[in-house]
Amino acid sequence: MATTTKIQPRALVRASGGPRYAVALAVDALGTGLLRPFLLLYGVTVLRLSAPATGIAMTVGVVVGLACMPAVGRWLDRGARSTVVAASMLVRVLGVALLLATPAGYVWLFATAALFLGIGNQAWPAAHAALVATVAHGRERDAALAGGRALRNAGLGVGALIATVCLAGGTTALQALAAVTGLAYLAAAALAWSVHLHAHPAATPAKDRDDGPAPRMRALLAANVVYVFCLNVPEVALPLILVTQLHASPVWSAAIFVANTVLVVTLQVPVTVLMSRFSRRTVLALAGVVLTASYLGFLAATSLGHSWSAPAVATVSVVCTIGEIIYAGSATALVTALAPAHVLGRALARFQLSTGFGLAVSPAVITALAPHGPAALWGSLAAATLLSAFAVATEEDQGTRLSGCRRRARPGS
Question: Can you tell me where the transmembrane regions are (predicted)?
């Protein structure tokens, strides 16, 4: 059992890559918040595409974008850090530029723009985690990763709020928001690149260095596909249930989304630091239990009368957000702790593949289960998540197993 880490704000910024990198993250998140929630609306209103064609193009962009992850992992394992982060931002500049240049009705150009945006969005988390893992170590690294997520969510929320206010300007406003997003990505890339951070695995402290093979993490990766469904619960599942089945006001969905953002921004770091007294694997398994409890809570809430269901769902959503916070604070941190330095990039890339796949398929799974009733949706999610938590808790760390074998072999050698 580890002792609880205490992180001061200045130390947290330093552990996260320094002030310039923190500004780069904030600018990048702000720009992303301006456009990403309204990309579908851009395709429909500005480019005059059909909603199904726009949605398919966006999905294809996300899924095909995942194909870049093996190359990103190898690039990171050659020592690149800030360069990869900057590249993930620059490729999105190309996506925005192509988006602005796409004439109305050209769905394939829109799909190509979505692909560039998808590549950048998929590459960034692994590159960011590798950069933080190079700057910080141990539980300080966990807090730094949590701080980056809180900062990013704050930027996304502010950007989405600004964009919502500007949408009254119609298609011209959407085009202007896209242009500002491209400029924000460009500025963020320049700031990230200026950090000039490069890893030298050979110089890793002896106590942190492990020359073993890349961890397989099969149970962790499979469980992560299910865990990430929680990220789409506030955005997909709850609005769908509240509006189409409970016939509640859309205000409830908006309030839940805002509450989720505020809770993540304010609690991500404190909760991660609080949980540092336990092993990362235990905390990740606990996250699955909390998420399972929230899904069962949603099942119970939707069985109440219509006048009580919406407030009950909103209340349970707080529990779901706490589960999301615990998950987000432990999952990537566990991967960075398990992976030897020389294969950290590939381990993070594989983890991002499971995350991206889960995020890509979860809307389809949720919308397919929802028409069959609350038991089908929430019961299935609860069962799958609890099974995933059990798999995470019982998986044996490869490094621990190998170390144990060496210890056992030493007396006879």
Answer: 21-43, 49-72, 84-109, 115-138, 150-170, 176-199, 220-242, 254-275, 282-301, 313-339, 351-369, 375-393
Which residues, 6+ apart, have CB-to-CB distance to 187 below 8 Å? Answer: 27
pLDDT digits (tens, 9 = 90+) for 203-225: 444 444 455 566 778 999 999 99
Cβ–Cβ < 8 Å for 32, 155: yes
Q: Within 13 Å and on the Cβ side, how many CA atoms surround 343?
A: 15
Backbone torsions φ then ψ of 340, nearest 5 degrees: -60, 150
Distance of CA 285 to the CA centre of its chain: 18
Looking at residue 212, its amino acid is G
Phi, psi of 311 (to 5 degrees): -60, -35
Question: What was the pLDDT predicted at 208?
Answer: 47
Contact 401, 210 (CB under 8 A): no
Token digits of residue 296:
């069962």
Partner residues linked to 8 by β-bridges = none
Rounded to two decimals, the pTM is 0.89
3-state DSSP call for residue 361?
Answer: helix
DSSP alpha helix (H) spans, 42-197: 51-65, 69-77, 82-101, 107-135, 138-166, 170-194
Strand stretches in 103-171, DSSP E: none
End-to-end CA distance of the chain: 31
Fold classification of 218-398 is Growth Hormone; Chain: A; (1.20.1250)
Residue 6: alpha-carbon gap to chain centroid: 24
Phi/psi of residue 137, nearest 5 degrees: -140, 160
Contact 134, 199 (CB under 8 A): yes
Q: Can 11-199 and 218-398 be said to share one CATH topology?
A: yes
Per-domain boundaries in the chain: 11-199, 218-398
DSSP 3-state of 263? helix
Write the CATH number of the domain with boundaries 11-199. 1.20.1250.20
Instruction: Flag whether pLDDT at 46 surpasses 50.
Output: yes
Q: Which residues pair with 80 in a beta bridge?
A: 198
